[in-house]
Amino acid sequence: MMNAPKTLSVSQAAAICKVGRTTVGYWVRSKKVFAQRMGRNYAIPVEDLLHFLKSSGQSIPPGLGNGGSEGPVFKSFQTCWQFWQGTGDGHQCQQCAAFRHQVEACFSVRDNGNSGCPDTCRQCRYYQDMFVARFRFIHQIDFPAAVFKGLSVWGGNAGWAEMCAVSENALIGLGIEKIIHPFSLPNVISSLKRIALEEKPGFVAGDVFINTRRREKLAVSAWVFPLRAPAGTFLMLAGPAGSKDARHPDNP
Q1: Residue 224, in any domain of the structure
Q2: Which secondary-structure segment (H or E) carries 7?
Q3: Residue 60: DSSP 8-state
Q4: At residue 117, does pLDDT exceed 70?
Q5: What CATH number has the domain bearing residue 158?
Q6: Per residue in 228-250, pLDDT tens?
Q7: Same domain, 169 and 217
Q8: Are 173 and 222 in the same domain?
Q9: pLDDT tens for each residue of 210-230
Q10: In this structure, what CATH number is given to the domain that contains residue 45?
Q11: Is there a single domain that holds both residue 94 and residue 17?
């Protein structure tokens, strides 16, 4: 549908799904479907309704277009404090630095000691739903692979964790300056800026030095690519330094 609405009222969702308003209300109240409160009413993002229907094995009504059949359907983005609101799961959002400073990538502030989250990131349902679901594909890549945004890592596969001599959980929110050796850091940051400005949509960064556990430097060849989703993120792949394959990003 070319001009399909991005949100639906409870009545509209009920009519499209051919269920009662009370059923849709239950989906919302039980947090099976995320909805934004608009005064006395709710606005249900279409992508959240699609995600619920697909993940629960229900058929996609024609009124929702192709149901995202051209690719995966994700939940609409929520901040962590929106996600946990009213759940009673022990999250002290009002005391958390992510809430106070309105930091959307809450895991990027976890090391400052002011996190109100009781779980580690890999155990966190919010992190799994909002972030990992969007880049789970990196765990299917044989090369070390990680996703960055800004100057912090959003997640990496086992190969990347092993290369950096840290656990996969320790990668989450880790500053890029702790991964990239100071010798290579200016070149990597410059590369990310050029991609962000669309001067180079995706290219081989060349040899990059990675920090090891003892702050020694490990040379790898790196590919850097922008991702369409999540917006503003980059995929970085690492291969043997100077290898033939590492100079050909079309054949990673």
Answers
A1: yes
A2: strand 7-8
A3: P
A4: yes
A5: 3.30.450.20
A6: 777 888 898 988 887 544 434 44
A7: yes
A8: yes
A9: 887 666 788 988 888 888 777
A10: 1.10.1660
A11: no
Taking only the tens place, the pLDDT of each residue in 127-143 is 998 899 889 999 999 99
Helix axes 21-29, 10-17, angle to 10 degrees: 120
Please give the order of strands across the beta sheet that includes 152-156. Answer: 152-156, 145-149, 233-240, 217-226, 203-211
- The per-residue pLDDT of the chain, averaged, comes to 82
Cα pseudo-dihedral 154, 158, 160, 165, rounded to 10: 110
User: Do 16 and 89 lie in a common domain?
Assistant: no
Residue 120 token pair: 């580690």
Please say if the pLDDT value at position 34 is more than 60: yes
* Single-letter amino acid code for the residue at 232: G
212 or 105, higher pLDDT = 105
Specify if 128 maps to a domain. no
Bridge partner residues of 146 (DSSP): 156, 236
141 and 178 part of one domain: yes
Q: Give the range of the structural domain holding residue 52, as residue numbers without chain letter.
A: 7-64
Tokens matching residue 140: 């299917």
pLDDT digits (tens, 9 = 90+) for 5-24: 788 999 999 999 999 999 99
Task: Give one word for 165, left, alpha or beta, with left for phi > 0 and alpha for psi -120 to 50.
Answer: left
Question: Do 126 and 84 touch, CB atoms closer than 8 A?
Answer: yes
* Length of the chain, in residues: 252
Query: CA gyration radius for the chain?
Result: 21
Residues 36 and 89 in one domain: no
Count of structural domains, the chain: 3
| pLDDT for the residue 214 | 66
Nearest 5°: CA angle at 227, between 238 and 212?
25
Task: Say how far apart CA 39 and CA 46 lie, in whole Å.
Answer: 19
